[in-house]
Fold each of these.
Amino acid sequence: MIGVFLSSREVGLYRAVQPLKEVVLFFLTSFVFLYLPIATEYYAGDRYSDLRDLYLTSTKWIVTVTFPIVLTSVLFANDIIRILFGKSYTPASTAFAILVIGMFTRVIVGPNGATIQAINRSEIEMYASLLGMVVNVGFNIMLIPLIGIKGAAIATSFGFIFYNLIEIVVIYRDTGIVPISMTIVTPIIPTIIIGSVSALVLRHWTLDLPLLMLITILLGLLHVGSVIITRNLEEKDLLLLKEIEENTSLNLSRIRVYLEQQIDKR
């Protein structure tokens, strides 16, 4: 649709940055393989309380791991595009940042697609996809002529928002689960503030890839610390670790002991 309204240059810019948004989904899609069989077992056994705890806790830690990548991608979008593709592609950096935010709307509601499968409502995927496509096309027609490839990125983001909205409504209707809680939102605020201040300080720097990776790691440590400082560690986090250990060969005893110590300090 960009090709219908704009030149081939804009098509090339958008096609270059569009695949990068998938990095936001890496941890979500990786965790689904572990989450789905456990969630299915809970739903089949009418253990809705356990399913709710599993969903919320999984979402919290998926967001915790993903958010530093999202924040770095948004705050330093221009540097990322310049490093990966060259200075001539930096006009697409705003569209890239919008796409990243749009994909994060999928992450912040957690493994809703896997939960739809776990509660045996897979047909909802078709309706959600159809609505997302209609919304995407509609906003493309309205926004691309007005603001170019940024409009295409906004349209894609809205498509994902409506796609997720359908699944969230169905999950709530069938199980009573609301995927977003304050334990997820509260730690994000300090990380955004400190990350934004850092971006202002570094705005005149010419960043390279190692420095961007270091910034992402530091933001990750900051966000984990924010979870601890805002007192959002819970007993449910220990139960999630126990489920992971029981269903994989991972030894998470040290992490579990540390979390127990932090929870006891409360």
Amino acid sequence: MEKLVMIKYGELTTKKDNLKVFVDKLYNNVNNKLKDYDVVITKNKVRMFIDIKDYDENEIISKLNEVFGIHSIVVCYKTEKSLDKIIYDSVNLLKKGKFNTFKVETNRADKTFPYNSMEISKLVGAGILKNIPDIKVDVHNPEITLHIEIRLEYSYIYTKEIKGLGGYPTGIQGKGLLMLSGGIDSPVAGFLANKRGIDIDCIYFDSPPHTSIEAKNKVITLAKKLTKYGSNINLYVVPFTELQEEIYKNIDSTYMITIMRRMMYRIATLVAKKTKSKVIINGESIGQVASQTLTSMYVINNVTNMPIIRPVSCLDKLEIIEIAKKIDTYETSIIPFEDCCTIFVPKHPVINPNLDKCIEYESLIDYDNMIDKAINNIEKIEVKKYKIVENKLL
């Protein structure tokens, strides 16, 4: 028997005429993830197979569990399309384990095979009972399930199936710009955007000396953690001090956060268009803070014509934290370095801001010139290489 890792596509199979495009993208992402391994990857419209040779299967599986578009990962054995050979190899596979009860499930994709799925399961089950003593069939709650797939060229048997990340292959939907703050929510939003096939770049608003270099390095670390899910992230660091200080000096304290967010959205929109991002992504969760009430979102959104995606908008904080722990961003996010969203926070920020009042307050500052200045002095960091690119964005 030849040992392989099989990838099942799941949601990708619903794409019908566009299936090939999705499978090809997944293939490229898997190939890139395993580029340091001398493996052979083959694909068809329903399955992908990896000849892992002498590599540790758990190491390969760990890498594949960072690839979106995979429904499940299976350690399987390729065998001939002969019932006798399937029984023989199934017995040898199950003899390696210890169990008291089992069942057999068959997927006969090749309908020309002379037995149907039910017959194959019964005949293989009978062969196992005959050759392995002191075990019995339990179709409801077996200790082990033997899966058989009858495909066009070969048959495959396996007992081990690991759930993948699901979703679509990262990059299949194009690029989005993630507003990465350094908190718990925005990295989770980036992860969930990746899951829907969006490749991401990130934008961070830096406000020294009010924010520290440690806060900036924390954001770089979070962005780097997100790169393992497929995006070669560019982080755009926006110098935001002058604009934020002008807001603090000239605008009613209750409206400071609303006006600040409107400025951030204006800048993010310009950066998104220059970097050919199709959407802006953020970690806003409905009602979590004053700037995330529905009224606040409406008023803040008014400054941009870009689509805004809020992947965690309908999750509660505990659900977001659970995902953050799963993707290993939580411990970094809770390191207590302030970002520009947490400095100058008023005691009673407005939760139902008035759009006309925002426009009136904004007329008190020369924000267009300050935005241009901030854009022209953006620092671009290639996160995977940890490399600062000197040339300007514009």
